[in-house]
Structure formats: C-alpha cells, structure tokens
C-alpha cells in the first residue's frame, strides 16, 4: 500500500485539510484584524480541501478495495 501513488495523494490531501484547519483555528484564537478579514476565506478553503480529501478516500477505497 505504501508504494501506491494514490495512497500518498490521498494522504497528502488529508494532511492539507489538517494544515488549513490548524491555520483557521489559530486565526480564530488570535483574533484581530487578520481574523476578521480572512477567517471565512480560510474556512472555505478547508471545506474545499475536505471535499477533495473525501473524494480521494472514496476513490482509493473503490479502486484499491479488496471487496471483502
């Protein structure tokens, strides 16, 4: 499984969601002008990345699943 490029692509997409989520939580916690200006945009990026990650996970399971 670790030599499968689709597995690594799926893993990178999940990691991207985590990074975007941590950035969003960090801006919420810090507050200020940056948070007011970019909080919604960061969370929209997270939703898009999360959708992509879910599609990659489903694609991986469908294409590489053992069927049992």
UniProtKB/TrEMBL annotation:
Transmembrane segments: 6-26, 47-65
Pfam family, one: HIG_1_N
Domain (HIG1): residue spans on this chain: 1-68
Entry keyword set: Membrane, Transmembrane, Transmembrane helix
Cross-referenced InterPro entries: Hypoxia_induced_domain
The name this protein goes by in its record: Twin transmembrane helix small protein
């Amino acid at each position: 499984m670790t030599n499968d490029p689709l597995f690594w692509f799926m893993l990178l997409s999940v990691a991207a969601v985590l990074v975007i989520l941590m950035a969003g939580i960090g801006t919420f916690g810090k507050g200020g002008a940056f948070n007011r200006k970019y909080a919604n945009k960061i969370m929209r990026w997270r939703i898009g990345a999360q959708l992509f990650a879910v599609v990659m996970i489903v694609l991986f399971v469908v294409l590489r699943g053992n069927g049992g």
